[in-house]
User: Which sequence fits this backbone?
């Protein structure tokens, strides 16, 4: 049996140029459209970093908060992560 899940909500705070962003996502393909330097790549990097628990050098002085809600087989799961610069880890 294969299990399928999709991200439902993405909340990013204090990541690169993003102060606070909440996106509602739908199953299937979601497109990020906007002018150059509007933060599209930063959104993708935040998702990647959230899953890898690694952040690039030069992280903002504020702690980074990321929340990602998934739906798996009709059940909603929410992952919360906070990167604290002084610790360098996701507590």
Assistant:
């Amino acid at each position: 049996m294969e299990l399928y899940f999709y991200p439902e909500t993405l909340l990013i705070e204090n990541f690169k140029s993003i102060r606070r962003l909440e996106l509602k996502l739908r199953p299937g393909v979601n497109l990020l459209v906007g002018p150059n330097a509007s933060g599209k790549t930063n959104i993708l990097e935040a998702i990647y970093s959230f899953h890898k628990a690694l952040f690039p050098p030069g992280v903002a002085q504020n702690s980074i908060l990321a929340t990602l809600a998934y739906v798996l087989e009709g059940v909603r799961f929410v992952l919360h992560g906070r990167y604290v610069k002084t610790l360098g880890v996701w507590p």
In short: The two ends are 33 Å apart (CA to CA). The mean pLDDT is 74.
